[in-house]
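Posting here for the record, re: uridine-5'-diphosphate.
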Amino acid sequence: HTSTVTTPYRGAGSVTGRVPVGIGRKRTRVVVTGGAGFVGSHLVDKLIKRGDDVIVIDNFFTGRKENVMHHFGNHRFELIRHDVVEPILLEVDQIYHLACPASPVHYKYNPVKTIKTNVMGTLNMLGLAKRIGAKFLLTSTSEVYGDPLEHPQKETYWGNVNPIGVRSCYDEGKRTAETLTMDYHRGADVEVRIARIFNTYGPRMCLDDGRVVSNFVAQAIRKQPMTVYGDGKQTRSFQYVSDLVDGLMALMDGDHIGPFNLGNPGEFTMLELAEVVKEVIDPSATIEFKANTADDPHKRKPDISKAKELLNWEPKIPLRDGLPLMVNDFRNRILNEDEGKGN
Ligand code: NAD
Ligand code: UDP
Ligand code: UDP
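Prediction output follows.
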């Protein structure tokens, strides 16, 4: 569905969603909520590089100014400290809605706030999209499949989610966000896109956010044992962040609503991941076993045929090539931290 409805409020100024700026040039005005976070800041880099005007909305719960500081002074970049749980008035063409803590440690820290961000935050951004006629993209998650009974997971799978567990604020929150997105599409003709993102890694991940890749890489650099939870036989599929950013932009700019799985189908047990980290970062790295967390999904692997076919997208960077790309960033930040402590 490509909406061609024009309303007096339609901020785009054209049905293509691009604003005429001078002769022969069109520029898109884009909002990225959560744009100071890990994925958001990489998306912002690519949008700015393409020549878009970008407004980042972030409350800095898990995001950092450092992630977008290199754009300060660029007249096409704007950073607003704002919590998406509160309404906001802006005029743009596209809204990439990423604001929401993504790591289990962060989203469990204040579960009610996580739900409010997912529900009220998404509602506000959809209200905004409706008022100004902007295109809206939701970054949902593979967690909507819960502890999946179907493997690999296709978009048609409805999931196996515990509604009253410690992860529910996140996975049920995102499920509701998907529902809201489709209801605004059906009820208010908002042009929407839904991405279901699988585990993603890369530079700028929070050092201590508890996610497995950031943990293992930071532990290997700090010469600490890598903490494998449970028996380490649970699986995940890890996608490098630039592949995800390409997928999100292909989705936004394409003609299909989704939902689309965006992930790398390469599937690894946590023990295998530890082996790869050892191989590419430090051959002397060791592992230690720790108790697993509640409701941990046993396996996860995207079926990406739909995105391949309709978005002409597939990830390009395998784990062994992607991990080394985050090591320098992690090393520098760990070094700065140590210097900060006077070590
Ligand atoms: P992140 O924690 O680095 O980024 C989230 C950003 O949102 C941060 O900058 C944070 O400060 C901001 N934020 C949180 N609550 C907010 C609020 N109420 N108002 C305004 N800003 C707020 O996480 P990420 O890995 O970059 O994830 C980005 C999006 O992608 C999230 O929606 C997440 O659910 C989704 N996602 C990520 C992954 C992954 O593996 N990284 C997997 C699935 C889905
Ligand atoms: N909203 C917003 N910015 C806008 C338009 C709406 O933040 O430009 C918020 C609005 O405050 C409301 C939500 O989005 O909380 C949903 O708006 P909508 O107009 O769909 O619903 P209503 O306000 O009628 O409940
Ligand atoms: N995990 C691990 N060691 C860690 C952190 C996580 O073995 O130091 C495991 C965790 O139990 C889960 C998997 O790695 O099975 C992925 O966890 P993560 O928090 O990165 O993402 P999610 O559970 O959201 O997929």
